[in-house]
Amino acid sequence: MRAWQVTRLGEPREALAAVDIEVPEPGPGSLLVRVLGAAANFPDVLMCRGEYQVKPPLPFTPGVELCGEVVATGEGVTSFAVGDRVLGGARLPHGGFAELAVMDEAKTFPAPPGLDDVEAASLFIGYQTGWFGLHRRAAIKAGETLLVHAAAGGVGSAAIQLGKAAGARVIGVAGGPRKAAYARELGADVVVDRHEQDFVEVVKAETGGRGADVIYDPVGGQTYQRSTKCVAFEGRIVVVGFAGGEIQSVALNHALVKNYSILGLHWGLYSDRDPASVAACHRELTRLVEDGLIRPFVSERLPLDELPDGLQRLGDGDTVGRLVVVP
């Protein structure tokens, strides 16, 4: 079967090699699926670089999120059968950037019938992360103000839709007119082009000086530091990641003085520590899809041959929305 493998660490254009490999066998508790769509995620870029917390031995096929059709099941699998359309996370080293991939039964879920294959491929990581960040960690309430950084990216775009579905007023921050227009299309009530405006001043103006109740930050660094200037009394900053490349230090005296909370979010831990909550989240996301409140915005559908270029552009910050590879 055709697949892309990371054969050496580096930027995606350098690290990925097109190969023809044997079809993997699904082990106990796993599924072999025909890939219908594999969403590109920033962790895929980081794994190419060797900078992610998960470091599979070389060579491996990245692609941590996908939608597929079950073609074989391993020993002990009872939840799915051949022919089922499913979504979820891949079991590396046999990731989604290939014609066939391996998935863990425990991290696989039915694909909502209301989404096509590439949309379903984009529902898992970003939306699960957003739901846990906004609801379980930040306990967002209707009527609150939510500030979303990197609002045109995969994680940020999901947070905009989930915030609106929760009844929040959403302010999205994006870089450049193209990304700002995309955040507006996603439903953000106010959009800040960070190249042209200071998001701190906009948030203060839009909230009458009170600040944002919840700040969703996948960027880190100076973005986090500036966010502390516009968080509301008893507000919550959800630390999702460090896409900006800088891991900030935190002045805890400032959190004490302003009475705000700093909440860490490592969504992947829930699969091991509270898998029932992940399944419940998927049911809730499926309901929100059925009710027309959320829908992944896929900006690019790429053939498998164009993966290195697409993943490189994602790593360089030159994409908007979700990029999905279709073998």
Keywords:
Rossmann fold, six-stranded mixed sheet, alpha/beta, 2 domains, single chain, 28% strand, Zn-ADH-like_protein, 327 residues, Quinone Oxidoreductase, Chain A, domain 1
Description:
- The chain is an alpha/beta fold and 327 residues long.
- The chain has two domains: 2-123 and 296-326, Quinone Oxidoreductase, Chain A, domain 1 (Alpha-Beta Complex), CATH 3.90.180.10; 126-268, NAD(P)-binding Rossmann-like Domain (Rossmann fold), CATH 3.40.50.720.
- Helices cover 31% and strands 28% of the residues.
- The chain has helices spanning 12-15, 42-49, 117-120, 125-137, 154-165, 177-186, 199-206, 222-227, 252-258, 268-273, 275-290, 307-315; strands at 2-6, 16-20, 30-39, 65-73, 85-90, 100-110, 145-148, 169-174, 190-193, 212-217, 231-239, 261-264, 298-303, 322-326.
- Strands 3, 4, 5, 6, 13 and 14 form a six-stranded mixed beta sheet that branches. A six-stranded parallel beta sheet has the order 9-8-7-10-11-12, sandwiched between helices. A two-stranded antiparallel ribbon has the order 1-2.
- Helix 2 packs across helix 12 (307-315).
- The radius of gyration is 19 Å and the shape is globular.
